Amino acid sequence: MKPVGPTRRQAVLALAAAGIMPTVKTPAAAGEPARVACTDWTAAETLLMLGIAPAGVIDKAGYARTMVEPSLPPAVVELGAGWAPNIEMLQHLGPDFILVPQWTVRQPHFPRIAPVVVLQNRSTALDAIETAKRQLPELAERFRAPRSAVEIGTRFDADLQAIRDARGTWDDRPIAYLNLNPDGRNVSIATATSLFEDVARRLGLKNAWGRQAHIWSFYVTGVEQLASIPDARLIYADQGPRTDAALRRLAENRIWNSLPAVREGRVTRIAATYPYGSLPTALRLARMLAETVSRPAPPQPGPVYG
Amino acid sequence: MAEVASVSRPALRPHPWLLAVLLLVLAGANTEILLSRQASSAHWLAALLQPQEAAIGDLLIAYSLAPRAAMALLCGAALGLSGSIFQTVLRNPLAEPSTLGVSAGASLALVSATLWLPEWLAWGQEAIALAGGGLGCLSAFLIARRQGMAPAALIMAGLVVSLYCGSLAALAVLYNQDNLTNLFIWQSGALFQSGWSGVHYLLPRVLLGAILAFAALRPLALLELGDQTATASGLKVGQVRAGILVIAVALGCFVVSAVGMISFIGLAAPNLARFCGARTARQRLVWAPLIGAGLLWSADSLVQLLGLVMRELPTGTATALLGAPCLLILLVHSRQRILPAVSEAGLPRASRTGAGLLGLVILLAVAVGVALFIGRGPDGWEITLPFADAHAVLQWRWPRALGALAAGGLLAIAGTALQRLTANPMASPEVLGLTSGAALGFMVQIMLLPAQAAGAGLAGAGIGAALTLAALLLIGSRAHGGPERSLLVGICLATLCSAVVTVLLSTGHPALRGLLGWLSGSTAGVTPQAALGALAALLGALLILPALLRWLAILPLGLATAGAVGVSVRPARALILTYCAVATAAATLLIGPLGFVGLMAPHIARRFGFTAPGSQFLGAVLVGAALLVVSDWIGRVAIFPWEIPAGLVSAFVGGPYFIWLMQRRGP
Question: Which ipTM was obtained for this model?
Fold first, then answer.
């Protein structure tokens, strides 16, 4: 459905006219960044961080909604759904590489179009930020990135340090980072293996939620479980109307209203971030967290105090 | 089906009250532990009646634990009651509160609201789910109206509505992945309470439903005896049936709207009551609600206890994990008879099946041609011929077209064989549990192994399907009785597997993207080897088929008849089940657990006039293959470059078509 830029179209036609089979790659000129197709948003974010505009990305509208920044150039080709990147479109695109996330399953076709590079996310040994930093040099070299990986890593550390230094010490309470379910009864709480935890730890903040069962990010449970962390400060992601609906229903929830954090006004709203993002997402989350903990929570809209 | 084969075996026959009391005691003990964690037992009543705002323990007792227990009891009883009405009125042991499209309608409404009108959620999920469920059921009634609300017609209409709504909801979710988690919580049934509003909402409605149901006991008992007896007693069968069903549907609808989908209780509670010796409709109407209440309360209290030490499971899942083994044990040991399901009345045999088959062959050929040569690229529509394939796209198209063809044919064969074997129109490959087993295996593979190390293979899915088949044959062979029992065993296994799948899905991890595509029947990842393998499987299945046709004609006539003509029933039945299972597994590995084709292709073929066993198989294979090839093509081009999984498209294309066929040629 998404219109394709005329230059891309011409390029494709030229390629077709020349009769070049897309599996046979013409080596790109030295210094020219590689043309990389991305099958998830984190891959696209990583490429943009390296100073490369992706050749194609899945679900561009979703990227704009979820990742926000860095924004995608309009010429990037739409590759369709994340669960089934369009193979014929990939074939037309003829990228130099396909950058796929670690959890990609069952894409036996990709290697016949271009070499597949796997973007690592996190492992039992390394958190998401460390994993991303370790992999950057390899990606930068393979994709002939205009920006140096070392420089990006140093810059990230410096930015994070600056945020940490600037953050106030209004409140040293542990933080529970939540997504509110619109039913007003359930919440998802970020665990020790979430991007929130990675960022919070580097900012010198403490995650109030210690429970978890496996390596995925969120612990889904009833609101009453928040009573087990009475000292915590609650920060929830603003997911637009769904969060509004949740707040309206929570306003009538006796247990929510009796939580110490709610009674004492320790609840704050920040913009939502992609839970599986890379360094740019981490910085965005870090800025918002630092800003939030530097001042008392603003009064909540609506009858949250019940 | 008479059960003369196993008279010598001693029957295990607990009375229904024993089971109900056991479950309630278990639940009570669990709840006591939960309450003791918050306050000493002397203080419980005070906490409940006058909770201190400052004491979180009091608040949890008054606004969470107590209403949650009450809610579990209420919902369980309502589901058990609703299920036993459904099974009696529709005379089918597989019927349950969601059979007429209630859950699917409610789910679709809620998914749509969550995604597109989230402001509406502030009005309450209850109202939205209620409206959706009511609309779903109303559509089923309207479709079945032309056929006088016959049980088989109602079941078929309900299945179509469920499939259609379910596919729409699945599609909406596929394209809005960032909103997944919320929906999965609802879909797996969450009983979390934070106040008494849910109980206040549900209690009067369930009471009213129960009073009406017991007031309708006499006509209900008559309906159980069959339409002819009921009509002879002066009953207006169609109207009475619709009236009583409305009570059952409303009960199911209220539960769904209050706590989400708790799927298994409505099916299990009446069957558990039956296996414990509740023979009559009246007995089941009393015992099924009690067993249902006990089942749900104990499952929910177990969930909360386990939640103290590990990740909390959704209650709907725990219900399945607790209820399915109960039902399996009873299936193996009980000798209580299952009423054979009512199948559709005979359809007029078409005179020109040969011409019909030829027409279907031509249709399939045209479909394959379109799927291969017509497509969309960056520049719009294009026709690509084999020797002018500038973009080399045909290499991607033929495996998926061929894969769709083979999978459609295989599922149609399995569906036809199962429906003939069991004489149950609700039988389909999914009820064997193989597809759920394969899905679970695939998920476990994704979670345990790094995706790349696991390679592109579907080893996990294969192992999952094989283990499920082994369990099916092992337990099924111990469960003596008609083929209905094999179906119930399959449903138990399917429920167990899909319960676990739902839990895993509820975590909302992006790794599930790949899985969601496969779960909804996407052919995008089919490799040439897999497609050729599936084609070989289809040809093999067709070659073996003539050897099985005689058994398939004789087995449904009952054990005595079969024995009289020299067919030894058990090995024959096991062999046919294995045949279906292998066919299903081969198709599932290719395109995931598809709902529509295996169920509908046999019915469509019948309505085309292919009623003799041989021609029904051939007709169903051609219908199934053509349907999936066309669906795959539509899914590829409709919103290019996005994909719509063929499995979902097949429900959109096939559903309305089937309804039209039903209206036109209804018996």
Answer: 0.76
